[in-house]
Design a protein that fits this description.
By secondary structure, the protein is of the alpha+beta class. It has two domains: about 110 residues, Ribosomal Protein L22, Chain A (Alpha-Beta Complex), CATH 3.90.470.20; about 100 residues, 4'-phosphopantetheinyl transferase domain (Ribosomal Protein L22, Chain A), CATH 3.90.470.20. Helix content is about 25%, strand content about 30%. It has four helices and eleven strands. The protein has a five-stranded antiparallel β-sheet with strand order 7-11-10-9-8, covered by helices on one side. It has a four-stranded antiparallel β-sheet with strand order 1-2-6-5, with helices on one face. A two-stranded antiparallel sheet has the order 3-4. Strand 3 and strand 4 form a beta hairpin. Helix 1 runs antiparallel to helix 2. The radius of gyration is 17 Å and the shape is globular.
């Protein structure tokens, strides 16, 4: 697994290529509750990704909180899909898994959201349905060869922000104001001006794009990145 952390800011996030998981997922040491939840997933590949996500999440919990055994904590899932840790209300977690990669973020500094997508993904909703006018204009300003990557960057940024907020906001209600550097400001919803800091927004090994979002009032900075190619 790759790991990135910023202990002073109370955040650790990790990634794990799905191909690195053992063939026998029973050797991961996951509790029966995870396997029971996975059993409800019909597609074997999706079931493997789910268990990979649980494995990286549990490892990340232990990484940030050595006093907790991430293998045995109870992971509750809200109706919105947001996971939480029953034993630690102050611990905020988020997980994402896609074809080829699982990722998780754990924070003691406030709600966090993580999202990852492969660069090869092409099936996205039409941009006009979820991009603001400003985002559409910035996207159009990029050379055609760069527009797909930029579109994916916007998508994972908004998905991570939705996970961090865990409220009924829309993707179009989130306005990505800048794409400079690694600390990206997100304003949601207009015109309230709430700021979300995206800690990480980068290609992983030139194959994936990942974003991490934190809630307003809880800024975090990105440390040295093991995710960076």
């Amino acid at each position: 697994m790759d790991r990135v952390d910023d202990r002073q800011q109370g955040l650790v996030w990790r990634t794990c290529p799905i191909r690195d998981l053992p063939q026998d997922l029973g050797t991961l040491g996951l509790p029966a509750s995870d396997h029971a939840r996975a059993a409800s997933v019909a597609d074997p590949a999706a079931r493997r990704r789910f268990l990979g996500g649980r494995a990286v999440l549990r490892a990340t919990i232990t990484e940030l909180c050595p006093d907790l055994d991430g293998r045995t904590v109870t992971i509750a899932v809200a109706p919105t899909g947001r996971p939480s840790i029953a034993e630690r209300a102050d611990l905020h977690v988020s997980v994402s898994h896609t074809r080829g990669l699982a990722a998780a973020a754990v924070s003691t500094g406030g709600p966090v959201g993580i999202d990852v997508e492969p660069l090869e993904r092409t099936a996205l909703p039409p941009g006009r349905a979820w991009l603001t006018r400003g985002e559409q204009a910035r996207l159009a300003a990029h050379p055609p060869s760069e527009q797909h990557r930029q579109l994916l960057r916007l998508w994972v940024a908004k998905e991570a922000t939705l996970k961090a907020h865990d409220t009924r906001i829309t993707r179009r209600g989130i306005a990505i104001r800048t794409d400079r550097g690694y600390a990206v400001e997100v304003v949601e919803p207009e015109p309230d001006g709430a700021v979300v800091a995206l800690l990480r927004w980068e290609a992983i090994a030139h194959r994936f794009v990942l974003a991490i979002a934190t809630l307003p009032g809880r800024p975090m900075r990105a440390g040295p990145s093991a995710l960076r190619p």
